[in-house]
Design goal:
By secondary structure, the chain is mainly β. It has one domain: Porin (Beta Barrel). A hairpin with a 4-residue loop joins strand 2 and strand 3. The longest helix is centred in the N-terminal third of the chain and has 8 residues. It is elongated, with a radius of gyration of 17 Å. It starts with a helix and ends with a strand. This is Alpha-ketoglutarate decarboxylase.
């Protein structure tokens, strides 16, 4: 039983939440994750992503998926990350333009760097697999706030 407890001492839970709204647009995200910290420099974990978006009288989308994330801290204040994410996008249009509903998988390979202060890291990441027509992100560059306890 003692070995099991040692494992869980190195597991940290956290993730991110997001909320965006304005001028008929709404977006909410919940992205929990867990990281196993091998030592003070390296960590590896998994995450889930659930996002709901809507634009009044235009569309509604549901995005569900998961990710594998690797963290490297070369020094205490700097965190480098690589995250392989794959999400399923389901988008329903509500316009008279006769647009087809979308249902597809959208992969992302996010490479990032951030400033780490205790359990919180703030930084920027870049999606190497960015595809403007399919990505769930508006731009290949995106800021992030990540926390683990």
């Amino acid at each position: 039983m003692k070995n099991s407890n040692l494992f869980w001492e190195d597991v940290h839970f956290g993730g991110g939440i997001g909320l965006s709204f304005g001028d008929g647009f709404f977006s909410g995200t919940l992205a929990p994750s867990a990281i196993y910290e091998f030592n003070h420099q390296f960590g590896l974990g998994i995450g889930l992503n659930a996002t709901f978006n809507s634009l009044k009288n235009t569309y509604k989308s549901t995005i569900l998926g998961g990710s594998i994330i690797g963290l490297y801290n070369p020094i205490t204040d700097l965190q480098l990350s690589a995250e392989l994410e794959n999400v399923n996008v389901s988008r329903v249009y509500n316009t008279p333009l006769n647009l087809k509903n979308d249902h597809y998988w959208s992969p992302a390979l996010l490479i990032g760097a951030g400033y780490r202060n205790g359990p919180v890291t703030m930084g920027i990441r870049y999606d190497i697999l960015y595809d403007a027509s399919k990505s769930i992100y508006a731009d290949p560059w995106s800021p992030f706030v990540r926390f683990y306890f």
